[in-house]
Amino acid sequence: MTKIYIPLDMAAVAMGADRLAVAVAKEAAARGQQVEIVRNGSRGMLWLEPLIEVETPAGRVGYGPAKVKDVASLFDAGFLTGGAHALNIGVVDEHPWMKRQNRVTFVRCGVIDPLSVPEYEAHDGFKGLKRAFEIGAPAVVEEVTKSGLRGRGGAGFPTGIKWKTVADCAPGQKYVVVNADEGDSGTFADRMIMEGDPLSLIEGMAICGYAVGASKGYVYLRSEYPVVVKVFQAAIEKAHEAGWLGKNIKGSGFDFDVELRIGAGAYVCGEETSLLESLEGKRGIVRAKPPLPAHVGLFGKPTVINNVLSMATVPMILEKGAKHYADLGVGRSRGTMPLQIAGNVKFGGLFETDFGIPLGVIVNDIAGGTRTGRPVKAVQVGGPLGAYVPVSLFDLPIDYEAFAAKDSLIGHGGLVVFDDTADMLWMARFGMEFCAIESCGKCTPCRIGSTRGVETIDKIRNGQDVEKNIELLKDLCHTMKFGSLCALGGFAPYPVESALRHFPEDFRKPALEAAE
Amino acid sequence: MAGAAPYSDERAREIIAAHMSLEGPALPILHALQAEFGHVPESAVKEMAQALNISRAEMHGVVTFYHDFHTSPHGRHTLKICRAESCQSMGAEKQANDFLARHKLEWGQTTPDGSLTVEPVYCLGLCAHSPAALYDNEPVGVVDGETLDAFVEEAKGK
Known about the structure:
- The structure holds 2 protein chains of 2 kinds.
- Chain A is of the alpha/beta class.
- Helices cover 41% and strands 15% of the residues of chain A.
- In chain A, β12 (336-343) and β13 form a beta hairpin.
- Chain A is globular and about 75 Å long.
- By secondary structure, chain B is α+β, with helices and mostly antiparallel strands.
- In chain B, a hairpin with a 2-residue loop joins β3 (133-135) and β4.
- The model of chain B has no long low-confidence stretch (mean pLDDT 95).
- Classes of the chains: A alpha/beta, B alpha+beta.
- At the A-B interface, α1, β12, β16 and α17 of A face α2, α4, α5 and β4 of B.
């Protein structure tokens, strides 16, 4: 029986993985070959998807990107024993893209069957939770604090401090909420973890619940991810069956349940307080802080809200100890960053690395430059509210503080590359338009500012009082940045200001040329 | 695609009742109603307000806040085309505009035969395969004009 891996990851499915799996099974049956097809997560080499892996004595040999039309020739070439074929990329673990990484959060993603509890356990799964039970709740909080783990949602808030605040609240109903509303363009790490290693998120939530005294956890998932819904729901059931969720988990006396909730297409619900409103069944309108959700959160109870990646990293921190994690990275950016390389690139995908790697190395070397083959013009780092970084700043290391010093952000670690055909005035306009569409409407700077922003950029585009309107736009950005209630309005100026700062020529084109 | 069932107050009440044990049940109920009827009609909003003991205005506010919920029927199939930055970096904006022009549609509109509604979406998480789209629940990477046109044809057939 030969084991074959074909990803169920949404990106692989979007490139035909489901049809490929059917074709491989059919061809194997027709040829009388005994195969077992495992639907794994993605290894992150997305330009190779769908990537078929075959288990051989030498290791897992990869073939990609494989199409249905390649199936017969793969069998002819003896791919079940690692035979030579134009799509053969060799042993996947030895691939240069994999070898350059330091996989911590993504160590199991693409490797194991995401829905097999025994496989998860065989790859160190649930060791973190077991250790949590051994050392007790206060020590778990201490461990997470010492690891230096920070939120992956944008602001980079220390996870341990959040947990301690909730743990210190009086006992009673508390909640663990995972923000899986990954709405930023160029980000897909949360999706990949939830499809490729969902049990790590469930384990992280259970550890958190145990540490802070919560018995209920919610995952708030955006509705644009239909594959995650299926995989994660199944993972919750598997964890229950195996006794890792539910009453008295493994005889610890600790009860914990996880429920998956689906959003409804509102970007602002990625902001933690509007996410809570949405979970409560209301309009996703931002709450003023304080009170912090840690004190008054879901249904008015103390609540930990963490991003998927922070939560999925927690089991490893508990298993290996805080120091192991803290020793990775640079400065105050501890650990690793799963970078999501996207947009106009040759080799797009997920690349997990220690903090500190320069931006230019990622774009030119790891991502192989643009897919169109044209020169790079800009990279938007950290989602639609992130800054456009020009080639002249390619020395910047991936580090929260280094980016902040250049008025930019790392956010979620998404990189969207643009070639020299990109019109930065248009991208700035889109940034404002997006904010106008997605604003929850509670505060004036965001609600009105974004609409006026689009109008002002249109005037600049039409060549109307260009310099005066650029000044007005800057002023508007300033108001939004410092007057908005949450990060949607507060960060929307980043793409606009960075486009203005680094690409001033795009704002001063003759009117006719600037038109579409 | 789900959502062919004709609306009845009785069926709506059943769906609502099935979710009332959840904490904060409004969004799960709305998803379930839309899956059943293809949209969330005004009468269902009224039933929900009653069951949740909130005003109809408040319930209406919830339904209209979210892009996913719609109060009138859409086409039998839905094509969501990504307009976010990553897809734009690979020319999605022009591609989508050309597509809409070819089929004489605007964002959010349904083809005259009622077969397909075209909606914008802001990121499908398929950013390494830009430009991307979602046809009903089927993700598609590296789409071109031809792929998009094929969905219009496919929708017509069913």
